[in-house]
Design brief:
By secondary structure, chain A is an all-alpha fold. Helix content of chain A is 75%, strand content 0%. In chain B, strand 2 (17-18) and strand 3 form a beta hairpin. The termini of chain B are far apart. The relative contact order of chain B is 0.25. Classes of the chains: A mainly alpha, B alpha+beta.
């Protein structure tokens, strides 16, 4: 396993059905709301249990990836890995948005799993960028922002201490 | 008295940023201080947002899905280490609000990148 393999960094690669399921089920759930009786309950519980199972699997894979990245902290990671990972993040954010639109199917467990995956992904993103860009000098365009922030903060401090 | 603005609010300050060519530019600021701190003397702490495309360890890329309404610009980022203190009277306008899970991710990265 090497860092340059895009599959290594894509936690959704072996769980590609999750995208399809989420796209389809978030629409289907709104439709099912109109059905009455036992059929509705049975359809909903099967769909939701399947989504939660997939989210659970994804979370385990991402936690594994997080541990792996932590262990590789002393090795230089190529920028390509970070670029690939940002595509993974983008994909998950769109999944997250779909679930958010249906209020995570009104299930705390789904919301908890979705949020845990999001937080794990941001932890990995932070570790990757800290590694990949560790030697990069600060951006010259930051200078203007720094001067501005210093000026505003200084004036605020003066007002508070008056 | 409770603060008028809250943690996660994206606001514009009254004074635009003066540029070297004499023009000025409005830069959004994301409020990161807690609501308890905001209510104290109505002072706030924020982190600067920019449309710079440079990526480094202090970049936090943001997009429409992270906010309650779409951003005006694409390809924006928060500069995690450029932190600004300001008072309520310095705020010109409320622009948007970041959704809580993304705000938590920003706060964690600021803690890890700037204060660890």
């Amino acid at each position: 396993m090497t860092h340059s393999m895009p599959i290594f960094i894509d936690s959704f690669y072996s769980n590609r059905l999750l995208s399809i399921k989420l796209n389809f089920f978030t629409r289907l759930v709104s439709f099912i709301q109109g059905i009455k009786g036992k059929l509705k309950f049975s359809l909903l519980s099967n769909i939701l249990s399947s989504i939660n199972k997939d989210l659970g699997k994804t979370l385990i894979m991402i936690e594994g990836l997080n541990t792996h990245i932590t262990k590789q902290a002393n090795e230089k990671i190529p920028e390509e890995v970070y670029i690939q990972f940002m595509k993974v993040m983008k994909k998950y954010r769109s999944h997250y948005h779909l679930m958010e639109k249906v209020d995570f199917f009104d299930l705390d467990i789904t919301k908890e799993l979705a949020n845990s995956i999001l937080m794990e992904l941001y932890q990995i993103e932070f570790k990757l960028k800290s590694n990949v860009f560790q030697d990069k000098a600060s951006d010259s365009s930051d200078r203007i922002l720094i001067d501005y922030a210093s000026k505003v903060s200084y004036n605020t401090a003066l007002q508070i201490t008056k | 008295m409770p603060a008028k603005f809250h943690q996660g609010d994206l606001i514009f300050l009254k004074d635009p940023i003066p540029l070297p060519d004499g023009k000025t530019l409005d830069h959004p600021v994301l409020i990161i201080s807690s609501n308890i701190a905001n209510a104290y003397e109505n002072s706030y702490t924020g982190v600067m947002m920019t449309s710079s495309t440079k990526t480094d360890k202090f970049s936090f890329q943001v997009d429409d899905l992270m906010f309650e309404s779409p951003l005006d610009k694409r390809g924006c980022q928060l500069r995690l280490y450029i932190i600004v203190g300001f008072k309520e009277s310095d705020i010109r306008v409320f622009k948007n609000r970041m959704k809580p899970p993304f705000l938590q991710a920003v706060l964690k990265q600021i803690r890890d990148a700037v204060f660890s």
